[in-house]
């Protein structure tokens, strides 16, 4: 069709209307508020027209709405927070308009939503964007890279190519997504990142050396993937790192000596359930602020460093299911705050040192 003009006010009389498709015409003017009185409406398409003005907040009155398509108009202003009340919405497209501001938090509560398009607007002030735990059926557009003020991003689905352009991003979380098998190198160029969580995905291959570019990183969580190869020595460039968790992967080789130079490491030194080999060097004891060590379920061998008992902040030591041998260090008795000591399923010999009796806070010793 090639209809033109304004939407007649009399449309509000069509109270039994379920579907209204006026897309790809030449309608102009403001979006008619009268349409928002059509309470039975499930399908509303005003895409590819010349509508101006703002999206009326009364759109929330169409509570049965499942499809709302306003693509390719000249709509302005902010996305009304009332859109978050459309609990039955499945398809929502506001793309290619002149909308500004941020995405309302309520959109994250639209549990039936399976298609969301907001690209080609002017939402450049957006600082927090959460698109995780959805079933979107296509990739997120690369235009996400234009959100230069974005600081917090939670994603599900395919990682958009433009993600490396988010130069102010502080926290990036891409979790529990079995379709992701690789990570764009561009992520490791976002030097502002302080938290990167790629937990519970299906990521294969080695951890890129470019990880060393993330010098502001404080929290790196890569648990439950299929990373292989050695831990890159460039990890030591993360001088602000406090949490390092690569549990449940397939990392192999010896522990990178350089990792013990990261004196900022505190909690979450978790490398368990991998294929790490070799011995634990005395350099481990440089990590004097550690409160937990998870190195269980690997193939580590040799003796435990006696200086382990000098890390007075330790509360948990998990070294079970390895190939450690020789005696249990007597210095472990110095760890007054230790609550868990797990040395089970190793090849330790000798007797249990009496100093272990000094661990008054312990609730588990294996």
TrEMBL record:
One GO BP annotation of this record: response to other organism
Keyword Lipid biosynthesis recorded: no
Cellular component terms per the entry's GO annotation: membrane
Domain of life: Eukaryota
Classification via InterPro entries: Leu-rich_rpt (IPR001611), Leu-rich_rpt_typical-subtyp (IPR003591), LRR-RLK (IPR052592), LRR_dom_sf (IPR032675), LRR_R13L4/SHOC2-like (IPR055414)
UniProt keyword list: Leucine-rich repeat, Membrane, Repeat, Transmembrane, Transmembrane helix
SUPFAM superfamilies membership: L domain-like, RNI-like
Pfam name, any one: LRR_1
Subcellular location: Membrane
Domain Disease resistance R13L4/SHOC-2-like LRR as annotated: residue spans: 6-120, 126-267
Membrane topology (UniProt): Single-pass membrane protein
Name the UniProt record assigns to this protein: Probable LRR receptor-like serine/threonine-protein kinase At1g34110
UniProt source species: Nicotiana sylvestris
Gene label: LOC104216976
């Amino acid at each position: 069709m090639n209809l033109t003009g304004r939407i007649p006010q009399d449309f509000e009389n069509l109270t039994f209307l379920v579907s209204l498709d006026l897309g790809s015409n030449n309608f102009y003017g403001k979006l008619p508020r009268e349409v928002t009185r059509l309470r039975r409406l499930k399908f509303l398409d005003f895409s590819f027209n010349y509508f101006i003005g703002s999206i009326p907040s009364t759109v929330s009155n169409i509570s049965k709405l499942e499809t709302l398509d306003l693509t390719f108009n000249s709509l302005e202003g902010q996305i009304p927070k009332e859109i978050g009340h459309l609990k039955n919405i499945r398809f929502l497209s506001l793309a290619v308009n002149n909308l500004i501001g941020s995405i309302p938090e309520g959109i994250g509560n639209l549990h039936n939503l399976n298609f969301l398009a907001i690209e080609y607007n002017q939402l450049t002030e957006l600082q927090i964007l959460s698109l995780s735990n959805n079933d979107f059926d296509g990739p997120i557009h690369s235009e996400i890279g234009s959100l230069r003020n974005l600081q917090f991003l939670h994603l599900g689905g395919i990682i958009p190519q433009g993600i490396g352009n988010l130069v102010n991003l502080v926290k990036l979380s891409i979790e529990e997504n079995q379709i992701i098998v690789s990570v764009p190198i561009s992520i490791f160029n976002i030097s502002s990142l302080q938290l990167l969580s790629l937990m519970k995905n299906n990521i294969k291959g080695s951890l890129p050396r470019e990880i060393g570019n993330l010098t502001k990183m404080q929290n790196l969580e890569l648990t439950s993937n299929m990373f292989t190869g050695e831990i890159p020595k460039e990890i030591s460039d993360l001088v602000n790192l406090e949490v390092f968790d690569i549990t449940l992967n397939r990392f192999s080789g010896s522990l990178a000596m350089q990792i013990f130079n990261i004196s900022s490491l505190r909690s979450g030194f978790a490398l368990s359930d991998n294929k790490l080999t070799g011995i634990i060097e005395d350099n481990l004891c440089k990590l004097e602020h550690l409160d937990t060590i998870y190195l269980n379920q690997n193939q580590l061998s040799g003796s435990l460093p006696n200086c382990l008992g000098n890390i007075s902040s330790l509360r948990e030591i998990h070294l079970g299911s390895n190939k450690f041998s020789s005696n249990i260090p007597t210095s472990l008795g110095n760890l007054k705050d230790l609550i868990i000591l797990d040395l089970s399923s190793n090849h330790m010999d000798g007797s249990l040192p009496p100093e272990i009796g000094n661990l008054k806070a312990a609730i588990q010793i294996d």
